[in-house]
Amino acid sequence: MDLGLKGRWALVCAASRGLGRGCAEALVSEGVNVVITARGESDLLSTAAALKGLNPAAEVKTVVGDIATEQGRADALAACPQVDILVNNAGGPPPGDFRDWDREQWLAALEANMLAPIALIKATVDGMAARGFGRVVNITSGAVKAPIDTLGLSNGARSGLTGFVAGVARQPRLAGANVTINNLLPGAFDTDRLRKNMAGAAARSGEPLGDLTAKRRAAIPAQRFGTAAEFGAICAMLCSAHAGYLTGQNILLDGGSYPGTF
Ligand code: NAP
């Protein structure tokens, strides 16, 4: 199926590795021009080269910066001729015990995982509505539906974003102008973040990393971790020209881990 996205411009935040990169790859493969961001320059440049290799006809721009800061967002927006598609993403907050978190750690989580995507939505959706097409995909977490106690900073900040999106996506001036806003909720995906979290858990528990990883995999009905490529494919589908009637939704990609009927 042609997703009807050729020639569109996407701003894909936090996209030098992992799920953000998977989204950029899928969009570029569909003929979308992208601006990708990350804080580290070298991974960002090698990802940009790989994206150009996937589709030499697509334009690929890079912006080095922290998307959780005003400057990082301003630079990212300035690099994108027009934002037709916005993929909101940033690194996740560290795990821990809420007793150890101070105000500064809470503010950092809120900045990265709630206020940054809200600021980018604010900066882009009215322009999308004026042009009659817009797609916003926020990468959140399965922890929004099934909280993980050690990820309290993530549970809290992302739930705030989810509540905001639930309201704004349903504004007739957006939904009625073919602007959709949806959240993609990853379960366990094989990325640097997952590997780092697993290594941390192994170090804390003393259990060998291989055993812990095998147990985690076996607990997923699909019996495996997801891949960034399959995450990106669902993101591209949500961004497609055909998905204009799908808005305000939380779409869980977790290999069947969430145990509820709905
Ligand atoms: P990852 O493999 O660690 O990749 C993170 C990417 O984001 C890198 O390109 C990183 O590059 C960039 N980045 C991080 N913070 C940034 C910032 N403040 N500004 C700009 N770029 C930034 O992580 P991932 O697994 O793809 O996870 C993506 C998101 O999904 C995270 O919020 C994570 O918590 C969430 N999530 C992931 C999983 C999973 O299983 N993987 C599950 C649930 C939720 P630089 O470091 O160079 O900036």
Describe the structure in your own words.
With 262 residues, the chain is α/β, with parallel strands linked by helices. Helices cover 47% and strands 14% of the residues. The chain is built from 9 helices and 7 strands, in the order E-H-E-H-E-H-E-H-E-H-H-E-H-H-H-E. Strand 1 (9-12), helix 1 (18-29) and strand 2 (33-38) form a beta-alpha-beta unit. Helix 4 (103-131) packs parallel to helix 5. The longest helix is centred in the middle third of the chain and has 29 residues, at 103-131. It starts with 8 loop residues before the first strand and ends in a 9-residue tail after the last strand. The mean pLDDT is 97. The structure holds NADP nicotinamide-adenine-dinucleotide phosphate. The site of NADP nicotinamide-adenine-dinucleotide phosphate has 30 residues, from helix 1, strand 2 and helix 7. InterPro entries: NAD(P)-bd_dom_sf, SDR, SDR_fam.
